[in-house]
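Exercise 7. Predict the joint structure of the components listed below.
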Amino acid sequence: MADTLIGVKNIKKVFCSPKGDVRAVDGVSLRIRRGETLGLVGESGSGKSTVGRLITRLVRPTSGKILYCGRDITRLGERQFRDLRKDMQIVFQNPNTALDPKRSVRDLIAEPLLIHRIVPRHEIDREICRLLTMVGLPQAVMTKMPREFSGGEKQRICIARALSVGPRFLFLDEPVSSLDVSVQSKILNLLEDLKQELSLTYLLVAHGLNVVRHISDRVAVMYLGQIQEIGDTEELYEDPRHPYTQALISSFPEPDMDARRKRIVLAGEIPSNTDGIQGCVFHTRCPYVRDICRRQAPEIKMRGGRMIRCHGTGDAI
Amino acid sequence: MLRVHNLSVQFALPHKTVYAVNGIDLAVPEGKVTALIGESGCGKSVSALAAMGLLDGEESRVSWDRIVFDGKDVDDTHRPAYGKDISLIYQDPYSALNPRLKCGYQVMEPLLIHGICDRRAARKRALEVLGDVGFSDPGRVYNMYPSELSGGMKQRVLIASAIITRPKLLIADEPTTALDVTIQAQILDLIKRLQREHRLSMLLITHDMGIVADIADEIVIMYLGRVLERGAKESIYRNPGHPYTRGLLRCIPRKQNKDRALFTIKGHVEQLMSAPAGCVFAPRCELCRESCRQTHPALVSINEHHGVYCPLTEGGPHG
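Solution:
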């Protein structure tokens, strides 16, 4: 489709470990539209970060296709991909480890500008000033070192670095989870403003469900390497249909005295994804589990405007 | 259960002195949950540790006027027994358990250390408590090593070992921060159930306003080593008095502010290198007046159970 920026078709990623193969991503298909923010939620080990890393080619898929503007990027060589690297950038979770502590802000931001030859050498300082202003930092910080900044400021530097090469797509991997709430709100506002200003497209991976709700247009819910439900943010939060989405959303502690909901507490733990699970991956914890769920894995299907992977009982859907 | 008056903590580092806690009062009523809320570096964990006498490094200087625990004054000769009268649940279940000892032993260890009972009785009690924290097969967990357990299960083992002596006060320092949402829901339910069943007095340290809304009775808001607001949970959530509390509540993304830019508090947290003169929040406060910078504001009562350290609260411009 014309408005699709990134299309992911049935990608799988298997990591080999001494304890057995880990199926981190197990047949994920989705598309990210131009100019939208797609939120990806799920718990540790659900494969949400791996999906982002596959799309941005930090890891290579075991099978499946990733289309960027209609072009299959899984088949490109490193050289051919280099141009696309400018289009797709990443903002990592922990700004403390994402910045080289021994280099000044000027060096840190100049590096991508030089590698990709974005501006001529004599204009680099001017370009760095422009980027710093864009992320809300004063130009005077250029000569400072990362340790002189707070977590929020470091994250701003990381964002400036990501933007320096003029990307169209940003993969935001837990961009605010290491920050305090009062800093978090500033970074979220900044990301929203930049998206408008630069017509960016975001893939946001986060476990803070309220953060995802705030800036995502659509949300995909992952569990054990598979997408369980995907739909428009407000519809999905107001009326979650997959039993896992229901439990996940009800588990999130709302900071609101009036919004107390009945919490669905799931029994048990997330199974390990090294053991091949027969049937639906969620059946070990699902409150609505039936016989068919244990025998046969459900396909993800369109139901009432929403993609859902569930055999579905009257109670659940 | 616990009352602390005028507690201060300073850390003398090689090149500077950090004023971590600056004269705070704390109270944990019997059978209630008091939440200590604040952002990183506001001194919430340090306050709790110092009040319990658990902070005795060479670089830390702790002082207080008076600490009363369970009706008795705490001084150098009389201290509550840590691990017996007071237990602590740590934030990180991954590093709080000894990887080389079986879970069962770690659960019953406090009973043995304090000589409460013999090994046989301790074992029996450990199995009971493991059942109490939700393990369906306590005998199996008893013989497992921490590495065989998931994060949520480890936290259950830690909770079991914290409550085995039936402590009078339980301090929970960010007990669910390291856990996933659905596991967090399980652990919060467990803590709530145990707290009610055993009528535990609890000091909950957290930065998560959602968890506080869920399980706290009383709230204390801290900023840079000072208390800015304290009171009953309902009253604070519905009618926050301090500009900082209002800011904190407003900058959380939620349904109502979905399409708007989030509220932000200007500036950022600075470390205190000297004892603060005026209100610690003054440099970031939108309503700050000259007087705020000079003297520490007195407590203003909003109602019987709710007080604010801000002169602008009563009949202030923000209503």
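Discussion. Chain B touches chain A through 43 residues (CB under 8 Å).
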